[in-house]
Amino acid sequence: ELRASLLIRHQVVKLSPKRAQDLVARGLAMPSIFRDADPMVLDAPLFAGRDDALQFVAECRGRLYYPRGQEQLEKFLERPQDFMHMPPPSRVPVHPAATIIGPPLSGKTTLARELAKRTGAVYISLAEVATQLCSRQTLPSALSLEIGRQLRAGGKIPDELLVEALRYRILSADVLQRGWVLDDFPLTEQQAKAMDRAGIVPHRIFAIELSEAETFARAEALGQKSTPEDADHVQQEVTLQRSRLDAYGRNAPLVRVFYSLTYDNVRRVDGTKSAWAMYDHALQEVSHCVSQRLEYYRRTALGFAVRAHGMCWSSLRTFESQSEWLRYCPVSLTLGNELVECSDPRYTAEYGRKLYWLRSEEYLRLFLDEPESFLVVPLPEHRPEPLSMPERRAQKEMPQLESYCPVALVDRKELVKCSDLHMVRFMGKVYSFESREAAAKFMGRPMRYVQRAKLPNKRPAIKGEHEASLLQALERGRKGRGFEPADMLTFMQASIAEQICQALVDSGEKRPLFPGRSAHESALLFLAKFLRAKNPLNTEMFAEKVRAELEEFLSDCALPKTLGDLSAKKAEMEAQDAWTSTDNRVFKELCGRFDEIFKLNK
């Protein structure tokens, strides 16, 4: 394992951060191709604001490398060659950008300060920003003068001014270099939209969840622990929490819905868990978010495909980046020749500044590895479209295949008459389906069903289809006008058409030939006995009798062949002295039945 690093291990030296800065200042060393990124883990986040961000340094051939911990530093010193040829990192720096919201006394400020400490980001509070802008140490500006005028008048600071103050703070040098964590803002949907118009989009919004009972319990506990000198009436007054909870209940759901639907960047935090669990959860989410953005910038710079979900794209950006495959999965189209329209944004990828939708995580990985392999097969010009309810109601013409389901006809060889609940338009024609699943199958491979679905020339009558015409014929007969031939035909089709079709099919398969009768006479005898056996009006006893007659008829039809086979078997077994008395009894019974049949025929 260490063979590749044998010649270079002695050239790698461990340095202190101060020594590394001195070598850079004197021009004796310079950052490697990884710069300040981790040379051992791709797209590992660098929280530049932390004091220990670049604490571990290694120098090799005048180049400086910055592993993230002591264990990684030891691995780098032992096997440097294994890590020097890793892909270069993103040249775009990524820093945390998070917002903490939640009900009163849920620990928003504590979480925001701890998250800022662990990531090295700048903690931002709108109250502190407004105070800093209006202080005497800050140079006056139009923004600070307007905020000061609103405060002196005792009015509420408009949302636009608050967002402008936040934008002023985010554009400060320290925030640009370290990132930011915003405490308890935005509070309303209007403030969230104002931030969106100003181009301020948090990578993650942590919404702390806490029950009202827990809020009141915490307020009461704070009141018991505090003294009159350090009492905070806003936090400790139990009755005041009711109005604060009502205000939060009115506005917070709208804020969460806005960001969830627009950017899908809201993450819930259980406020009843321990503080350390909340800190770890928030840090894990922020680290994952930063790593994903580093991967995005690195892969797009190299021309590779990359995941798009989690980048906080707006609906307009998503629409403008739509590829020529629209929302159809190119992997399904290439591998299975199947049209699959996707809707889950978790399985989206960007390639060549275009957005592609995939049907599953497995297909997304295949596309990320070799996107060009799945962009050869073009999207068909004609694609099936499901009809909405108004379109179905406005449909006047009968669907194709006389409203029979093409999926049931092709897959199960069944004729299923369909209603207008599931209809699809394809190539200017409308098809009806028995279920939503059948419609989805058709939309996946429409040409398969269009080309293979063929109605048979003879189709059984639909149950209840001719009841009205039969009633009209009976009414005419009651009035003395008699039955018309067409009415009689309709009655026969509605009552015995299915049994006749089944009898004809069975006759064609079994081809019965009764001893002493012609093929035509045998077929008519079979048809008569079959219809008697299948008559739904038979009593139970009579039905058993006619079924026995049908079985006896079929047995007599097979009698000549059975008797001939048994005669040949008898001659063979008598020569071997293997013919038993039982065989002889069966043979005599068959011969007697054969003679009886011919006597009846005579």
Helix content: 40-55%
Number of strands: 15
Structural class, from helix and strand content? alpha/beta
| Beta-strand fraction estimate | 5-15%
Q: Uncertain regions: pLDDT < 50 for 5+ in a row?
A: 464-470
Q: Give the overall silhouette.
A: elongated
> For the largest beta sheet, what order do the strands appear in spatially?
6-7-5-8-9
How far the N terminus sits from the C terminus, by CA atoms, comes to 100 Å
Q: How can the largest sheet be summarized?
A: 5 strands, parallel
Total number of helices: 26
Average pLDDT over all residues: 87
Please provide a written account of the structure.
It is a single chain. With 602 residues, this protein is of the alpha/beta class. Helix content is 51%, strand content 9%. It is built from 26 helices and 15 strands. The strands form four sheets. Strands 6-7-5-8-9 form a five-stranded parallel beta sheet, with helices on both faces. It has a four-stranded mixed beta sheet with strand order 1-3-4-2. A three-stranded antiparallel beta sheet has the order 10-11-12. Strand 3 and strand 4 form a beta hairpin. Helix 4 crosses helix 13, helix 22 crosses helix 23 and helix 23 packs antiparallel against helix 24. The longest helix is centred in the middle third of the chain and has 27 residues. It starts with 11 loop residues before the first strand and ends with a helix.
